[in-house]
Amino acid sequence: MDLDETQIPGGVYLCQISDSISCGACCGLYNVADPSHENLSALLENRTDLFDQTPRDFDSLSAFALTIENQENQERPYPEFHHCPYLGLVGNNRNRPGCLLHPLGKNNKNTDHRGLSHWGGFACASYFCPTCHELPARYKKILRACVDNWYIFGLALTENRCLGTYFGMIEKLLGHELVFEEVQNNTVFQESVNRFLNLKTTWPYRKKPFNRMGNYFFKDDLYPRETIDYEQLGCTIPPCDPILQSLGTWCRDMTELNHAIQNIDDMIHDAANTLD
Description:
The protein is an all-alpha fold. The protein is built from 13 helices and two strands, in the order ααββααααααααααα. The protein has two domains: 15-127, no CATH class; 132-273, no CATH class.
């Protein structure tokens, strides 16, 4: 971590939160041809093994990136969203994504090599995804306490409209704001949140094939999400629309749409019921 939390929007750090949980979404982690957990884990493991054998000089580190690009499928769901070849596994047990060029990385001897990356080291200290700016601090703290694996954390974290809608609908049922101290040790609530977050990988109401697992969260409208034509389906926009869009929902008829909405509503009620 390069900054203390007083310098971070909302005062809640989200990039590297524990020895096993981190987010590499802004480095294009999920912008690969096969964004499955299994493939990404193998991809990051291979990179980390190769990086361990790479001398820390300019030519060798530059050659490392070329080797990775030659080894891996370069098809991208979002072609203009850079995917960094220096993403690997970091930490004492190499069990979370992170920057292999970071000065605290193994064998880097406190030397910052991030200037070799596409965005440079300045990005780590200056860029924060929309979630950092736009999601209330209480939701961000709850998310940090609930999430149980890096893959789902990175997929869910940049979905600020989805997360805001989910937690907001829970609060509406409860009739008051969520309080972090009341949920941080509530394992049943945390399990219900994780079931919701896992919809990013299990949601059945999508066009097939579906390869845009990750979210293009930059505000340049290069890759807008498909909206749901509620008028054509014969209904008004439901409160959970941001969630449905985040999950890539596509329904053929009202029956499917009602099932999708009911699925979301059930999960929101389940979470709220753990706090009654």
